Structures are given as C-alpha cells and as structure tokens.
C-alpha cells in the first residue's frame, strides 16, 4: 500500500452515525481502499475538532448547484468497501453539506435507491425515504412470501426494505439483546441473498421506540441508523403497534429521530446533522 497524496475532508454525524465527507471533485481513485483505511475505529482518521477516530462510512458528494433546487449525488462507501444504496443519516448529512454551499433550505439527493428530497431547518434535516416495502422481491428475500414475525436465528423478525434491507425484531428491552452475538447469523442468513441490517426495537413508554442496529457493511452496531428507524416504524404499523400518520420518536443510542410512515406514501426521517471537524486524508492505493 502506498500513499499518493491527500484530499480535504469534513466530518459530520447524524445522531452519532458519523461520516467522512469528501467532495467528489477531488479524485480518489480507490474509494473502497480509502474507506477501509480511514473508517477504521482503531487506526482511522481523526479530524481537527473531534476526538472520535474512524467513521461509519465515507460520503463522496457531487454538488450540482445549477439546478433549482440544487442536487447532490451521494455515494456512500462503507467501512468494508461496499457501496450502500441508501442511508438515512448519510442523506441528512449530504443535505446539510450541500445546503451550506448553496445557501438554500431544500436539496434533492440522488442515491442508488432513487432521488430523495430534503429540507433543512438549522441543524435539523428532514429527508424523504421512499415507500417501505415488505415484498420478497424488494427486500430481497429468498422466499415465496413476505417474512413477518418469523423466527430466524434467535429473534422473531419482520423483513422490510427502507432503501436497504432490514430484519426488524421487537423485544421487551433492547438493552437485554447481545446484538453482536445474535445479529451476524441473521445478517448472513440464506433468506437474505444480499444480506440485511439487523434492527431490534422496544417501546419507550411514551408512544415511541428505542432502537439498536447491527449494520451490514459496517459489520457491527452503530450509534444510529436512519433506514433502521424508518424500518422500526414501518414494521410497527404492519404489526398494529402504531397507527396513523403522526410522527413517531425512534431513539437509537446516538439520539432521537422523528419518523413518519404514511400508508403507501414516502416515509419521512428527521433529526440533526452536525458538523464535527475537518482535515486532510491520505489517498491510498492498494496495489496487486
């Protein structure tokens, strides 16, 4: 592995889900190697102004300000080098980053999962998340029917796609689940040909839910997962635990998110997107 040069970066987080942000105009020839190197929690980068090493992914963002509203093309490369089709917290960070450069409160975000509209109000960002789908084709599932409250591994899960696949289990108390132990067998279960994020949720006693997520591509638990928060509410509606179109509070370890899942319409995810710091990151190339 040799160091070619460096590239400027910024660091943001959405309720603790943290991302290295690189302007796509700055060329990074080997994006997977860059992400694997700099997202590492033991040896990754630490920006000025922050004390948290590494990240949950690298957002390569291409701003197209000539449009009204401005557009940003978002590519999220995860710590294992894979590309995620969608990331709710990452999309909110992308919107905040783009809004800072265009002095606007509305941004269109182009992702592999489709185009999403975001609105910005101070540090709070609300982003459209698409319509959750339980269809085996959409999740996807190696199954002839939907997967609803079915035992897989040690959990009873419901499968849903909220931009990426999620296996959601409602439990009495999320703190009682050894997620690092029980999640990998579900994440890699043959039922999920593309793998799945594993999300557990429990009622918070106030009409909302607490959430923990083991993320595919990170291969571990993260402080927050926006697609997971939407998945929690989508599955809660499917199981009759909530109803209507009112916002539902979902609280991963990193903070509270607001989720709206209307019937057959795009879901909406809201929460803070916070700038942490910046710096220069080595561009690495892994030779054969």
TrEMBL record:
Protein purpose: Catalyzes the stereoinversion of LL-2,6-diaminopimelate (L,L-DAP) to meso-diaminopimelate (meso-DAP), a precursor of L-lysine.
Principal cellular location given in the protein's record: cytoplasm
Compartments reported by the entry: Cytoplasm
Site, as annotated: Could be important to modulate the pK values of the two catalytic cysteine residues: 166, 215
SUPFAM superfamilies: Diaminopimelate epimerase-like
Primary gene name: dapF
Binding site for substrate: 17, 78, 88-89, 197, 215-216, 226-227
GO cellular component: cytosol
Native species: Haloferax mucosum ATCC BAA-1512
EC number: 5.1.1.7
NCBIfam families for this protein: DapF
GO terms for MF: diaminopimelate epimerase activity
Name under which the protein is recorded: Diaminopimelate epimerase
The family this protein is said to belong to: Belongs to the diaminopimelate epimerase family.
Quaternary structure and partners: Homodimer.
This protein's pathway: Amino-acid biosynthesis; L-lysine biosynthesis via DAP pathway; DL-2,6-diaminopimelate from LL-2,6-diaminopimelate: step 1/1
BP-aspect Gene Ontology terms: lysine biosynthetic process via diaminopimelate
Database matches in InterPro entries: DAP_epimerase_DapF
């Amino acid at each position: 592995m040799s160091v070619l040069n460096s590239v400027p970066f910024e660091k943001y987080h959405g309720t603790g889900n943290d991302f290295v942000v690189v302007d796509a105009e700055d060329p990074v020839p080997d994006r997977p190697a860059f992400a694997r190197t700099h997202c590492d929690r033991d040896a990754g980068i630490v920006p000025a102004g922050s004390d948290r090493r590494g990240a949950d992914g690298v957002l390569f963002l291409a701003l197209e300000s000539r449009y009204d509203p401005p557009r940003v093309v978002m590519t999220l490369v995860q710590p294992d080098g894979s590309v995620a089709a969608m990331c709710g917290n990452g999309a909110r960070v992308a919107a905040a980053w783009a809004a800072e450069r265009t002095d606007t409160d509305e941004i269109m975000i182009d992702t592999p999962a489709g185009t999403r509209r975001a609105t910005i109000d101070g540090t709070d960002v609300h982003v459209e998340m698409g319509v959750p789908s339980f269809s085996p084709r959409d999740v996807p599932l190696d199954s002839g029917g939907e997967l609803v409250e079915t035992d897989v591994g040690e959990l009873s899960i419901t499968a849903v796609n909220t931009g990426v696949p999620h296996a959601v289990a409602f439990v009495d108390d999320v703190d009682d689940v050894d997620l690092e132990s029980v999640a990998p067998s579900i994440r890699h279960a043959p039922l999920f040909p593309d793998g799945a994020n594993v999300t557990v949720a429990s009622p918070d006693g106030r009409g909302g839910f607490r959430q923990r997520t083991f993320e595919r591509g990170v291969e571990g638990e993260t402080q927050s997962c926006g697609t997971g928060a939407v998945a929690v509410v989508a599955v809660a509606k499917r199981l009759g635990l909530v109803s209507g179109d009112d916002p539902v509070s979902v609280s991963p370890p990193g903070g509270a998110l607001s989720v709206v899942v209307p019937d057959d319409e795009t879901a909406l995810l809201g929460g803070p997107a916070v700038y942490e710091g910046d710096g220069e990151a080595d561009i690495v190339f892994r030779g054969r």
